[in-house]
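This follows on from our talk about sequence and fold. I would like you to pick a protein and set down its sequence and fold. Go ahead and set the record down below:
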Amino acid sequence: MKVIVYLDVFFLLNLGMNWLVLAIHGKILRRKAGWVRMTLGSVLGALGACALLVIPIHNDVAAFLVQYAVIGYAMVRVTYRNLPIRSISRYILALYVVTVFTGGAVQFIGEALGVQRSGVLLVVACGFFLYVAVRVAMWGWGGAVKKEAAIYEVNIQFHDRTVTGYGYYDTGNLLKEPISGSPVIIAEYESVKELFSEDARKEIAVFPEYGEDGAYALPLRFIPYHSLGVSEGVLPGIEVDGVGVGEGKGRRWYEGVYLAVYKGSLSVDKSYQFILHQECSA
C-alpha cells in the first residue's frame, strides 16, 4: 500500500505539536520562554522531523539520537536563552518525557474522538485538552509555584548601560533599603559588574572597608541581610534606573529599585543570577 505524505501538512502538524510540547515543557520546568523563541524552537523541530522524513535513518538507535539528542538539543537551546550547559541534559530529558506524554495523549484523544492520528482536528483537540489540563494542574499545584519559585528574564538599566540575566522570584525576599524603604533585588557581582565604571567596581570589591570618608564613586547604601550562608551582614546597595522582569508583552518595569550586590553565586546550577523582591514579579 502506497502512503502519500504531504510535506507541508506534515510540517504544520509537527510545528503545532512542538509548540504544545514546549509550552508544557516550560510549565513543568518553571522556565518562561517568549512566544518568538518558542515558535523558533518549534520551527526548528518541525524542520528536523521533515529532514528525517525525507532522508530517513534506518538504524533505530541512530534515529533516536538524532531526533532527541541533536534536534532536542537545538530546540531547547533556541527556546531558552542563556541556558546553563550543566542544565541542558535535564532539559532534553524533560523534553523527551513531555513528548512521550503528549504522544500518548494524542493517541488516547484520537481513539476517544474517532479522529485519525495525524489529522489536523486531532492536533487542535489535543492542544485544547492538554492546555486546559496543564492550566488546571498549574492552578491547583503549580500555581503557587509560579509565584513562589518562578524564574524570569531580568533586564537591569543603569545610566546608559544594560545587563540581562535571569531572576528567581522569591516571596521570602523582603529586603528593603533602610532609608527609602525601596525594594531590593539581590544580584551576583559577576552578572552586573558591566554596569559600573572601574572605580565603582573597586569600591564594590572592597566594600564596606573602602571609602570611610564618604568619597564613593557610587552612592552606595548599606543593605543589611540575615541569610546567604551567614547569620547577618551588609551588602553594597545601588539604586538603578529601572528593572524589567519578564519577556514580551508580559514584561513589567520597576523603578526606584536597589541592587544588593553579592560577590558569590546565588544558584548552584547557574540557572539564575538575581533574587527578585516579593514586589517585583512578571
